[in-house]
Amino acid sequence: MEEITALAKRRGFIFQSSEIYGGIGGFFDYGPLGALLKRNVKDAWWREMVELRDDVVGFDSSIIMHPNTWIASGHVAAFHDKLVDCRNCKHRFRADHLATLEKCPDCGMSGTLTEPRNFNLMMKTAIGPMEDSASQAYLRPETAQGIFVNFKNIYQSARKRPPFGIAQIGKSFRNEITPGNFTFRVREFEQAELEYFVPDDGNDMPVYEAWVAARKQWYSDYGVRAERLRFYELPPQERPHYARAGTDVEYLFPWGWGELESIAHRGTYDLEAHMQLSGKDLMFFDEASKSKYTPILIESSAGMDRTTLTMLIDAYEHETIAADDGKISQRVVLRFHPRIAPVQVAVFPLARNKPDLVERAQNIEKALRPRFRTQYDEGNVGQLYRRQDEIGTPCCIMVDFQSVDDGAVTVRDRDSMKQDRVAQDQLASYLAQRLSG
Ligand code: GAP
Predict the structure, then answer these.
(1) What burial class does residue 206 get, using C-beta atoms within 10 Å of its C-beta: 0-12 exposed, 13-18 middle, 19+ buried?
(2) What is the pLDDT of residue 241?
(3) Which of 24, 194, 212, 285 is surrounded by the most beta carbons within 10 Å?
(4) What is the number of the ligand 1 atom nearest to the C-alpha of 189?
């Protein structure tokens, strides 16, 4: 993990937020490559969950919502972690993270930990110039509630009828007591949530199972190693009372298994809770039968920061290479799936002091730019390849002296390190095939 966090900083994937002021716990910034990686992960989710389906519509709700939203959802009353304080060193801990309450894990003193008490994880803010109880609001701790309160607006305007889904990707905030493990547990993060509404006609469990299978397929399509991924089916005692089924998608991180996503059969709980508090009707009105009902909800809720971190960790490899002449060398390579790799094609001239090679390489990069995520670079050949391996670029194009004569270039494959000679006019179709994944 230390190697990965060092690489993430060195190559511009992830930085600690406000680093020059000593950082701020639980917040991170994405550098140029990290921003691309995360965007590609989100796009991959959106493409599969929204664009390639005719039964899911997209949505984007505000981060701050009417405070009653969080009363109806149960977050005001129950979105708590149990917290203990050490009276000696003043450090705070999540009670469920401690092996014993006898002794402080930081200062080692016995009998200094307080009794566990509830700590609400929602972040508070104030709206308008007066900071009193009437102006108090929350930064949303999940994006889902924006979908529930808009259910009627959406199904009516989009002319959808269950079964259909509403998807959104957006920021959520949780005042985690103990943020940690890099970007795994943070206080500001992005969620990608799908709320899929189905009629109460007895077909809900097969729909739930189909979503679990679809999500399994998504992780597999983007190359997450099957042996580091598990789908944990929650037994009844681990599910909320209203949930008929639940599956946690977990990844084997360097520190152990951690949750990437939760998939849940939530019954009619969420819509009913909002109908009760708001007094507004959020039932689905079926024009054909002139009857109405509250649809059942199947939810898939994935953390985009955790998924991005997973992609980074899963792709990371420290490899020992034996050359044909028996020479042993090492390289660090990120084996990103080509569709999520921040840079897909890098183009270099063999020598940076040869204007015709430089110009040719720059022109190739410019010509490929509209179709692929490209980068032009120049310098020592070994270092160029090393740098691109470290940022996970699947294809590198070298323009050499022969290119000037025959118009062909060398394309090096990141994983096999094999090189192909490709005619310049065939490059775009060659790359399209190689990068299709
Ligand atoms: N609407 C359902 C919901 O929010 P959740 O299991 O609390 O369910 C869903 O959160 C996902 O959001 C998690 O599986 C995780 O990937 C991500 N997530 C939750 N808290 C997080 C945190 N503090 N830091 C990073 N990601 C988090």
Answers:
(1) exposed
(2) 87
(3) 194
(4) 25
